[in-house]
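Good morning C.,

I know you're traveling, so I'll keep this short. The sequence:
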Amino acid sequence: MLIEHTTYENGVTIGLWHITESTDELLERLDLDPFVMEQVYQFGSGKRRREFLAVRVMLNEICGSPQTIKYLPSGMPYLADHSQQISITHTGEYAAVILHPCNPVGIDIERVSDKVVRVRHKFLSESELSFVDSRSEKTHLALIWSAKEALYKVMGRESVDFVNDLVIYPFQPYLEGTMTAQENCTEARARYTLDYRVYPEFVIVWVKK
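The C-alpha cells, ready to paste straight into the viewer:
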C-alpha cells in the first residue's frame, strides 16, 4: 500500500510503501517479463520476494507507467529507459524509492532498534559518537546510519569506509529536518545536505547530489 508519494521543489520524488500484500497479490499488479519472473523466484525468502515486487509496483504507480529496473555490476539500480535517477531501500514491512530527473540520489530506511546501538562503533567515529543524544539514542543512531547508507548510494563508489570517509556533522534529531555531511574519499571532499523523517518504527533519510 502506497503511504507516501511526494515531489519536492528540488525535483526529488519520494515513494514509501507498506508491504501488506502477499507475493501473489503483488504479482497480480505487475506485467512482468519472463526474465523478471525468474528473478523473483530465485529469492529463497518470501520476504525478499515481496520487497522486490513491492518496489516495482510502487514505481509503476508513481511513474504512471510500467518501469523496468536494471542493475550495474556494483549492484546500483537504474531505470532501463534512463528517464530518471533512482535509489531503493527496504526494511521490515516498508520499502521506499527516490527519483530525480537528472541528479544521482540516495535513500535509506533503518529500523529504530537495539541493533543500531550494538553496532554503532562500526559506522560512527568518536566525534560522531560524542554528539549522540542519550535521550533519543536509538533514533539518533538510526538517522546517522541511514545518512551514511544514503551517501554511499549517491556517491556510487564500491569501496567506502563508513567511519572515516563519511562524516556527519552534529545535529539534533526532530520528527523531520536536515543534516549536513561530508565525504572524505575523493579530492572534492564534497558536502551534502540530507533530508530525514522519523516514524514510530523507522527513520528514512534521502539525499540528492
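Safe travels,
E.
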